[in-house]
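[agent] plan:
  1. take the single chain provided in the ticket
  2. run structure prediction with default settings
  3. attach structure tokens to the ticket
  4. add a short note for the reviewer (M.T.)
[agent] executing step 1
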Amino acid sequence: MLRFAGLGVAMDNAPDEVKLAADIVTLSNDEDGLKVVLEKYCY
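[agent] step 2 finished; step 3 output follows
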């Protein structure tokens, strides 16, 4: 699914196989990783 998304994003605390399939790895969910990605790619 990450490969077909256009921009696959994994959280830092995701399993290694998920992070390997992603285009970018952001901070963990405890460190507001989603916020970081949204601010970078959606503004």
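[agent] step 4 note for reviewer: Strands lie at 9-11, 24-26.
[agent] ticket updated
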